[in-house]
Amino acid sequence: MRVLAxxxxxxxxxxxxxxxxxxxxxxxxxxxxxAPDGIYTVSVTLWDAPAQGTQLWxxxxxxxxxxxxxxxxxxxxxxxxxxxFEAGTVRWVQVQVDADPPLPRQPxxxxxxxxxxxxxxxxxCVTATHLDLDSLDGALGSLGYVxxxxxxxxxxxxxxxxxxxxxxxxxxxxxxxxESLTNEPTLAAIATTGHWDQLAGVPQGLADGDxxxxxxxxxxxxxxxxCPVGAVVTGTDAAGAPVCSTANTAxxxxxxxxxxxxxxxxxxxxxxSSGGTGCCGNTVRVRNNASGLTCSEICSxxxxxxxxxxxxxxxxxxxxxxxxxVGNFYNYGCGGTxxxxxxxxxxxxxxxxxxxxxxxxxxx
Length: 364
What we know:
The protein is of the alpha+beta class. It contains 8 helices and 13 strands. Among the domains are: 2-117, Sandwich (Immunoglobulin-like), CATH 2.60.40; 253-316 and 324-363, no CATH class. 17% of the residues lie in helices and 24% in strands. The strands form 4 sheets. A 4-stranded antiparallel sheet has the order 4-3-6-7, with no helix packed on it. Residues 7-17 and 217-221 have low confidence and may be disordered.
């Protein structure tokens, strides 16, 4: 087993430097693969030379390696000596894992020397007594700075009372009341009461305050005219009378025929022996009685076979009684020529009349 990487980390603080060094490393085999997860004994020693020499410090730690990675803090059990680092001489660290031979020594980087620097005394340091304050004030002023003691009281207090030369505010600025306002506007009585009786210039007819006043004139004309049955109001004329129209009031025959065809499709679905052959291969076709063709012939002309002929009837209007009969259907064979009625020779509005309609149920 060997250590492929070893990193010394320093988590220093300004107030007091720590007495330990954080170490992170990687345990691997000769091929560079991570060592199996587990506990390993790592011995770390400090030397004054890259080989042989004098051992200056030693600490042994059990480390928990996960995917080869481990971390440990040096100096927790045996305090790190600062003297070897204060002279600025290069020191060497050596690592040994379990009973493996020690690894080649590596020079210690600046992290450890930073610990020693935190404990050095100051010789020849510049203190406040060495500064020319007058020159310092001039230099700070040229840069736009000012000493704290030279600040106005309001700069540190932040209060109105600490402000000098403050403007004289009107009484209303500090009181915030209507009574302290001078030259206040004269408001109409209704602005303060909000009462109907205080409103001036009320239109004639509204003065009594009710909502049942009858108006007269072109813009308010009322009329007894009503639209005839089947017509709808589309607007008003100049005299205020309603304008009636019969446009768009006729029954939608296209919708009526579509509903009839949908009902025929449902009837064919229930009248075929197999229920059809899946999507799009089952069709409903109109049979014109006047043609004399059977459903077998009509289906055959379209490359299909006939399953049945149906004749359906639907009751006009809404049902009003539970269980009321609203439709009939007949299931015929495919060889008839005169069953039901044909929409081919019918008028568009015939879809809304009561009667039987015949269809052919074809499939591919």
